[in-house]
Fold CsbD family protein.
Amino acid sequence: MCSFLSLEAAGNLTGDEALQAEGKGDQLAVGLKDAANDVKEAVGDAVDKVKKKFGT
């Protein structure tokens, strides 16, 4: 994620709006991926609890 911040920072320093946007877009993509992984883990945990409760 540091490289994404570097893209945005470089864009800020140079005034390059495309570079700023690329850095922000990359950060957003990483954030969405992390959120999706969190949901996947939560669903897996819920499935495990149900299986444990019903003994399957």
